[in-house]
Write a structure and sequence with these properties.
The protein is of the alpha/beta class. The protein is about 40% helix and about 10% strand. The chain contains 16 helices and 15 strands.
Length: about 450
């Protein structure tokens, strides 16, 4: 097999040097930035676990795993998973145990998502101390302090998700906790607009700046919202317009797709919100560059199939090669063996095929592509179940949704935002559209 030499744009070269290539005194001088880094070939070598087909999969930029795998693969230092999700128990021990796990997770390169729905509301009596509860928002502030102290594996700022159920007593406080109006300021005799600007600056610098926030909304809640009988929905929308938070997590919809309900509920997500997860589960993600599936102006289904099969193998291997911040996380990961094979370059693909993004043709084509990816990855996971052993969580009680008796991975697909890896691959991010592609 001929080894592929990766090709990067100048922008990708800059990102590689600043964030991905390891700084080693024994390395040769990097041709991109004239510093001692490993080469891109060396990076893909250490991330390929000794397999040349994995190396070519990565070096071709047809597929890239989430950034922590590129940061830490083959080093035995740091996690290969993108994010982790933790349930926060309503006790000091539970709150601080999650803080500990989150600290080690971020130290080794992962983001964190927290479900705070079980944390009692602000001001409620604590019988053991006769004090009053700090509430979910104060817990988030504690986790924010942890994130500020620790960058993700020394590579990037901490990324976190805070989630609370729509029926929690503190949901209204949660909805508005990033609003500028929540900032108390002394009277500096500023003009109203100046005061708003200062408040925004205070929130950005000292508020929950590492957090995405989301409200877990039930079918009943959304039914009331649709009927115009849910004032909290309007408050969510108004606050999101002001600050970008909170988002909405459709918790009942996620739970209907829960393949292992006997292990727990999908009551929260990872930091970016694309992975509903059980307590302590990590997400092991990667993205196929769909624009590379176009060969001679035609979308090559055979190439997509081959890429999906090999990428499924690769992500399954990541689970076994991974370094986990805590043994409970490793146990959760290897119990369900969930992987998330997604896509990037969707907008590029449509543009190259002369399909407008906002058309039914694009929607239909997207359905065909993702159905193919999911079907092929499921079939390959079934083959891996025969070759290496089935997902332990399914042994003896596989759910009805799993159509094959063998399955290595509880889930196989998930579309992540694909931020900097799409820069490396020089393609559009995730499934987002191009902005103003043809001009006005």
């Amino acid at each position: 097999m001929t080894k592929i030499i990766p090709q990067f744009t100048p922008t990708a070269q800059t990102v590689l040097c600043k964030r991905y290539l390891r700084h080693l005194d024994t390395s040769k001088e990097c041709p991109y930035c004239h510093q001692k880094h490993e080469t891109p070939e060396e990076m893909f070598e250490r991330c390929s676990f000794g397999r040349e087909d994995y190396y070519n999969l990565l070096a071709s930029l047809d597929f890239l795993p989430n950034s922590p795998t590129l940061f830490n693969g083959g080093t035995e230092q740091g996690t290969l998973s993108g994010c982790f999700k933790f349930n926060v128990a309503d006790s000091m021990e539970g709150i601080m145990e999650v803080a500990r796990k989150a600290a080690f997770t971020m130290k080794f390169g992962g983001g964190t998502g927290f479900c705070l729905s079980d944390v009692r509301p602000y001001g409620k009596l604590i019988r053991s101390t006769h004090g009053k509860a700090c509430g979910p928002i104060s817990v988030l502030e504690t986790y924010q302090a942890v994130a500020k102290m620790i960058t993700q594996g020394g590579k990037r700022e901490g990324a976190q998700m805070g989630m609370i159920h729509c029926e929690h007593e503190d949901v209204q406080r949660f909805i508005h906790c990033k609003d500028p109006e929540t900032v108390d300021m002394p009277d500096f005799k500023l003009a109203p607009e100046q005061t708003r600007q200062v408040k925004r600056w205070i929130i950005e610098k000292y508020g929950l700046s590492t957090f995405n926030l989301s409200v877990a909304c039930t079918d009943a809640f959304m039914g009331r919202a649709k009927a115009g009988n849910e004032p909290l929905f309007n408050e969510i929308c108004e606050s999101a317009w002001k600050t970008g938070d909170p988002g909405i997590y459709f918790i009942d919809t996620s739970e209907r797709t829960n393949l292992t309900p006997w292990l727990g509920k999908l009551d929260g997500t990872n930091a970016c919100g694309e992975v509903p997860a059980l307590d302590n589960e990590p997400c092991n993600l990667g993205s196929i560059n769909l624009s590379h599936m176009i060969v001679d102006g035609i979308f090559d289904c055979d190439k997509l199939t081959q890429t999906v099969r090999l990428a499924t193998d690769y992500l399954d291997e990541v689970i076994d090669q991974n370094f986990y911040p805590d043994e409970v996380i490793e146990k959760a990961a290897k119990l369900t063996r969930k992987i998330g094979l997604g896509v990037m370059g969707w907008a590029d693909t449509l543009a190259l095929l002369h399909i407008h993004y906002d058309t039914q043709e694009a929607v239909d084509f997207g359905i065909q592509v993702m159905c193919a990816i999911q079907n092929v990855s499921h079939l390959r996971s079934a083959e891996l179940g025969v070759e290496k052993g089935n997902c332990p969580a399914f042994i003896g009680r596989a759910p009805e949704q799993v159509l094959t008796k063998d399955r290595r991975n509880a889930t196989t697909t998930c579309i992540a935002p694909a931020g900097t890896i799409s820069v490396l691959a020089s393609c559009s991010s995730g499934i987002e559209p191009h902005y103003n592609l043809e001009g006005t």
